[in-house]
Amino acid sequence: MSDLTVEMVQRGRGPSAEEANRRRGIARDMRSAREKLTSATGLERAFDYELLRLYAQYRVGAGIPLGLFAVVMAGASAFWTPPVVAGAWALCIFAAITVISAGCRRFLRQNPEEVSLARWRRLFVAGETVQSLCWSAMIGLCATGGRTFALFGLVIAAAVATMLAATVPAAAVAGLVPLALATLSLLAFSRDMDALLLVAMAVGSQLFFLGLARRLYTSTVGALQSRAEKDAIFAELEQAKANSDEARRRAEEANLAKSRFLATMSHELRTPLNAILGFSEVMKNEVFGPHTAPSYQEYSNDIHDSGLHLLNLINEILDLSRIEAGRYEMNEEAIFLAHIVEECRHMIGLRARSKGQVFHDFVDDSLPRIWADERALRQIVLNLLSNAVKFTPPGGEITIKVGWTSSGGQYLAVKDSGPGIPEDELGTVMSSFGRGSLAIKTAEQGSGLGLPIVKGLVDLHGGNFQLASRPREGTEVIVTLPASRVMDTLPAVDVTAEAQPATVRRPAKAA
């Protein structure tokens, strides 16, 4: 039987978000291809319906203006034809407009999912043909005269028909053909050069309107496709937002579970650790008498040291979790950064001297106090100095600088002469439990939480953390505190002198 892999377990839980999105995309593409193959225009059903809907809206909106145009044409043709004939022609136009408008309104009232697009497309083409034939009867009104007037009327009717039916190319052609044939029929009444030129210009104009309608159809299809793509993008964004909200909810639940776990485990681990540390210290110090076997003394030291290391690791994990959760309590007060650095250097000095390392201090003692959390600041300095001692080889040098920044803040810089960190591993050492390859080989045992904790504490103070390192050249860490945390001291008040407004005295910046 084959081994159970992580991928198989994940598949058993269902498709991932990426897999689900890929499947939805494939299904959408297949549906689109199927609709294009079954469509008469080569477009998706949604596009076909939208084009027919636009045609119906244009026709409904143009009903009254076309009726008024027919009245004007009938009135003008009364100069060449009896009013009864002109009125009958106008009634035919009104009837055609009414039938087409009624059909368009009925189309617009139907459910888009149930409407038969092919059937309505045929009806619209037939309606355009009938209405165009009615407009073409304008030639009969001007049979005895006014042929030029009829010619321009046919051109106007062709322009209106092709523009209104532009979204249905077949209807545009059906509406233009009878008008073009009627225009050519004017050559039967006169074959002089002027009539030939007028007819040629009229037919050319009608063909131009047909080309313009084709361009309008292409632009409309492009606009519909752009809108569909925009809607698809919006849908994907909404889906991505929903996925993001779900992921955030799960992350919050996981973070809450992690906090509860750490709170519970810290209590459960510290209780036996206190007993281990206490009893191991009693055995190490031989409180109840010397050990019968010399090895017991060594074992007691190892137990006590291992317990201290485990306790420090638990404390570091808890500190990092509180920082990441935003629950680290800041007890801010006015403190001297130079004094904190000096105290921490003395605490680390014993370890440095045991390795023959030398400290070089460049500390500006005139720096004023800063408003910060003393415990956090002390932990920052201790972690940086401890790392420097850890990563510096015996006989190496460690440089400590404390001074002013160019913006009026204060900075702490710790540089060692250790093996350094390759550039591609800088992100690793800044991650939780991350350690570089050279550090694993050359440094003492560590948890990989020192620098992440330092950066988190610096961020809580609104400061800046910089790490610069190159292999075989050492590592330099610069911690910058903003000028808003620097407290300038006021000069002493001379009660014998005249009252003067106190001025702020700022120490000169160190070079």
Automatic annotation (TrEMBL):
Residues 1-23 are annotated as: Disordered. This is histidine kinase. SUPFAM superfamilies: ATPase domain of HSP90 chaperone/DNA topoisomerase II/histidine kinase, Homodimeric domain of signal transducing histidine kinase. Residues 264-485 form the Histidine kinase domain. Pfam families: HATPase_c, HisKA. InterPro entries: HATPase_C_sf, HATPase_dom, His_kinase_dom, HisK_dim/P_dom, HisK_dim/P_sf, Sensor_HK_Regulatory, Sig_transdc_His_kin-like_C. It comes from Methylobacterium oxalidis. Residues 230-257 form a coiled coil. It catalyses: ATP + protein L-histidine = ADP + protein N-phospho-L-histidine. Its EC number is 2.7.13.3. The chain crosses the membrane at residues 60-80, 86-104, 148-166, 172-189, 196-217. Keywords: Coiled coil, Kinase, Membrane, Phosphoprotein, Transferase, Transmembrane, Transmembrane helix, Two-component regulatory system. GO terms for molecular function: phosphorelay sensor kinase activity. It comes from the Bacteria.
